[in-house]
User: What shape does this take?
Amino acid sequence: MIVNDYFSMKLLDEQLHFIDQTKLPIKEEYIRTDSYERIAVAIERLEIRGAPAIGVAAAYALALSTKNNFSENIFFTAYHRLISTRPTAVNLSWALNEIRNCFEQNRNSEKVYDLLIAKAVEINNSEFQACENIGENGLAIFMKKSKVLTHCNTGRLATAGEGTAFNVIKKGFNKNLVSFVYADETRPLFQGSRLTAFELEKNNIPYKVITDSTAAHLMKLGEIDLVITGADRIAANGDSANKIGTYNLAVLCSFHKIPFFIAAPFSTIDKKISSGNEIIIELRKSEELSMINRIELTSSKYEFLNYAFDVTPSELITGIITDEKIFSFPYNFNE
Ligand code: MRU
Assistant: This one.
């Protein structure tokens, strides 16, 4: 029997407990720590990953930095260390700035640590609720019982709740609106074949993992009714950064006249930037392309280019499903 009892992270006994996503699905191993540095390393290594999960983990990490020997210097060192871990997902800076604002209002209070932890818990709870609302709002996209394609991982592992795109799929399946899921394996780190497959199994949703390059072929065969992915940062005009390969899917959907949806909490919208051109795209190490599990696939002396994200232009996005409502092109998130 499959037990659906895993969690991405929890605060217990003043420590953050988190599942090491790099070990999944081979091992379900939890790490516990109250060190902001250990959490920063976990975010860099992708032990904790997915935009909303990164934000919540960083909020806990910054709050925990005030636990022992509190000083302003330690707090701001932790803030700068955490904010530098990954550049693309806006949820990271958003959550850290929420904790920083709370700190600035309460820096002279004896209870600053308790107040910052309470703020981190509030962020966690609101991100949990956002996942619920995204899942409910997303039900409106299914015009019929659908076969869905998704990219990367957007489930419980990537968020503080049941997921963004994944929760739309899950709720759709539970309401008999989704019949089958195709999960892109998601090169080079296999968030699809390792993590999305793990979560689809745990939820008994029928699926097959495909290589990222299979999508066009399946669309031509009429096997895909719609595509839904998450996002790491959405500009004010709706341009959306997500895992590398998402833009390819949106272009393919446009050619095949298949709806392409993004699902993300409001905290992923960065109204300060007018378009996706301003989004910093993370470049990761060559070894992620030349090696798998420390085994060389090719010569590590060769030249590689490893962008972790791409930006899908807003005109290719049929709708952006948020916790508030579904927005459509031309995007205006103030309406
Ligand atoms: O590099 P990752 O694994 O952190 O990238 C994650 C993604 O691109 C997800 O699709 C995105 O964060 C949305 S998660 C709900």
Summary: The first strand starts at residue 9 and ends at 12. The first helix runs from residue 36 to 45. The CA atoms of residues 226 and 259 lie 5 Å apart. Residues 46, 49-52, 89, 152, 154, 158-159, 164, 191, 229-232, 242-243, 308 surround MRU (CB under 6 Å).
